[in-house]
Amino acid sequence: MFSKKKKQPKDVHFGDRLFATSMRTVALGVVLFLVLITVFLWGTAKPAFQKFGFGFITSTAWDPVQHNYGALPVIFGTIVSSLIAILIAAPLSVGIALFLNELANKKIATVAGFLVQMLAAIPSVVYGLWGIFVLAPWLRTTVEPMLAKTLGFLPLFQGPPYGVGMLAAGIILAIMITPTVSSISREVFKAIPRSQREAALALGATSWETMSIAVLKSSKTGIMGAIILGLGRALGETMAVTMVIGNRAEISASLFAPGQTMASVIANEYAEAVSDEHLSALAAIGLTLFAVTFVINSLARVFVWRVTKAQGTSR
Amino acid sequence: MRRFLITFLTLIFTAVMFASTAFAATEITGAGATFPYPLYSKWFSEYQKVNKEVQINYQSIGSGGGIRQFLEKTVDFGASDAPMTDEQLKKSPVTVHHIPTTLGAVVLTYNLVEVKGDLKLDGEIIADIFLGKITKWNDPRLVKLNPTLKLPDQALMVAHRSDGSGTTNIFADYLAKVSPTWKEKVGVGTALNWPVGLGGKGNEGVAGLVKQTPGSIGYVELIYAASNKLPVASVKNRAGVFVKPETKAVTAAAANFLKKTPKKDFPEDFRMSITDAEGKDSYPISSFTYLLVYGKQNGIKGSNLVKFLNWAIYDGQKLSAALEYAPLPKELVTKIDAKIKKIEVTK
To answer: Does the beta-carbon distance from A243 to B212 stay under 8 Å?
Structure first.
């Protein structure tokens, strides 16, 4: 195609075609990149999976000296810290989105919305430092003793209050994913046609009833999608978590206890991992994390797609 | 349009060609340990003033990464806090020389606000603290070592490195020598399966945990503790003397190791551990850090690398003290000099 048109005296479409080709290359490059990452991870992780088999995911040992690797404590740490984050961030973010979209006047909504967005721009290492110097001491001296006193009968709030630990990691993550969840929730709310709200109001619904009937109910799947995207971000977050989680690969019922996540164990140990077994085990954890985030992001896509499609037809 | 593109590309091409010929200085690249990085970067910039035709680029990616890149020959030299193991040396098709460049030490820092005076510790007690066997500050064994201090009835919180680290390796190497339980249960490595405690990332992470948590104890690099003025414990050495961690006590540990080790036992390849060294003035948790160099070098690059090594063990040592690194003992420098002469340089 190229060579044929080359001979024409003036090729007015050359720029267009050049642009299209280069964009296509870039787009396919991303896919290729994804494949290459998987291939690389699989290649490095293979020895660990071969040696430990399925036991890699169910074993609780993590001993680089004895070359005994099991990922269960870090998988546990990743899931628990992310769940804490979601439990805190989901109601907070949906509340923010509701307020900004439905209640606040335009000026406040613009300013507050911008500030929430700004949270996403703060580097995670800064969150980590804030965690070490502000959040952890506050948790140690105020929050954790109080929780132990009032809810100490639950195994969740037992043990010495260190400050750093699973709870601190969950709170940091909650703050970090709030902008993601709230801005996507806002988009979902915006997709709901005005007529629906007006209909609710016309039927005599109060402001709260309008929000619950017309807005929240019909955007359930969309909110789920937003939460899952936030969860995806929480699962992979490394730096801030590493700085406040206490970095111990153990499974404890208490939220005060230290933990370790998949991302943080890789960040911690990769640079000084010398033996092939250790490297392979870390790559295997990378692959597991990759798989988990991939699945979760796909789920979120499906949710959001379903809600936008449903709205599209109802309009 | 096309003509414009062609002109543009030609321009870029000539610019690149011109740039690469304009700066024809020999570039030597290395990668590895983070611990000596401040000293190395000072060395490389100082050395460039002495020998203008050389530019040394160093990436502090960690000892593990340094050894890997060195074995894969993607760098001209590697750097590591711990010497390479026999297993790793087997992977290398060429001879590898370990060149000690400076000394480091691990110190114990703690947070006891009400206690005035210096804390004293010995190897077994340190091991038992980090094994989780000693859990209170007023443990009878701690009180016995520190009769003058009023140690509180407070829980001990252990802080350790969460990232793989040469510092951890030195610390564990020392503990394995003084405590059989440690050797059996935990062992030696850059990343360990810690029985107790919280992990902090990097020296600053551990120091942060200790600073924030009353009743805590942790270990950091001597340089880090010295430059941040952290409270540090004196440690009992083999001769039974409590020694404060200072650069001169670290150099002394290396010098005493040389003096006290019989000639037949002295490792000619310098792969040696000087923790728990003999001698009254030795600080027991000390260690070398190394540059890894191929036995055969060629061309201008090779001869310049050898020149640099010679400069580092003599003139370079004078720069150590200002940065809180312990200089190499003179007796060792002569031995290293002889070793550097053995590096083959072909034109």
So the answer is: no
pLDDT at A3: 52
Torsion, Cα A100 A106 A111 A115, to 10 degrees, reads 20
pLDDT recorded at residue A229: 87
Give CA torsion, residues A282, A284, A290, A295, to 10 deg: -150
**Model-level pTM greater than 0.90?**
no
How many residues are listed for chain B in this entry? 347
CA–CA dist B117, B148 (Å, integer): 8
Nearest-neighbour CA in chain A from B236: distance (Å):
27
Q: Chain-centre distance of CA B94, in angstroms?
A: 24
Same fold across B2-103+285-346 and B105-265:
yes
> Do B213 and A278 lie within an 8 Å CB cutoff?
no
How many Å from the N-terminal Cα to the C-terminal Cα in chain A?
44
Structure confidence by residue, pLDDT tens digits, B63-120: 888 898 999 999 999 999 889 888 889 888 889 999 999 999 999 999 998 888 889 9
Please tell me the distance from the alpha carbon of residue A24 to that of residue A19, in angstroms, as a whole number: 9
Q: Do A140 and B63 touch (CB under 8 A)?
A: no
pLDDT at A1 over 60: no
Domain boundaries along the sequence of chain B:
2-103+285-346, 105-265
Chain B contact probe: residue of A162, A164, A272 with most B CBs at under 10 A: A272
Burial class (CB in 10 A: 0-12, 13-18, 19+), B59: middle
pLDDT for B15 equals 63
Judged by CB atoms closer than 8 Å, whether chains meet at A248 and B205 is answered as no
Dist CA A183 CA A224 (whole Å)? 13
Q: Hey, CA dihedral for A10, A13, A16, A18, is it positive or negative? A: negative
pLDDT digits (tens, 9 = 90+) for B230-247: 899 999 999 999 999 999
How do residues A3-14 score in pLDDT, each as one tens digit? 555 555 667 788
Of the candidate CATH numbers 3.30.460.10, 3.40.50.720, 3.30.450.40, 3.40.190.10, the domain formed by B105-265 belongs to: 3.40.190.10
What pLDDT is attached to residue B11? 65
Provide the phi-psi class of B197: left if phi over 0, else alpha when psi is between -120 and 50, else beta: left
Please give the mean pLDDT across all residues of chain A.
87
Compute how many other C-beta atoms are within 10 angstroms of the C-beta atom of residue A195.
Answer: 12
Q: B230 and B159 in contact (C-beta within 8 Å)?
A: no
**Residue with more model confidence, A36 or A61:** A36
**DSSP secondary structure letters along B37-79:** HHHHHHHHHHHHHH-TTEEEEEE---HHHHHHHHHTT-SSEEE
Measured CA to CA, the distance from residue B287 to residue B274 in angstroms comes to 6
- Say which CATH architecture domain B2-103+285-346 belongs to: 3-Layer(aba) Sandwich (3.40)
Report the residue from A65, A163, A274 with minimal CB separation from B188. Answer: A65
Contact A163 B186 (CB under 8 A): no
Count, residues in chain A: 315
Q: Give the span between the Cα atoms of B110 and B146, in whole angstroms.
A: 15
Q: Report the C-alpha gap between B110 and A36 in whole angstroms.
A: 47
Q: Where are the beta strands (DSSP E) in A93-207?
A: none
Which residues from chain A sit within 8 angstroms of residue B200, using beta carbons?
Answer: 243, 247
Nearest by CB: B155 against A160, A269, A272: A160
CB atoms within 10 A of CB B163: 27
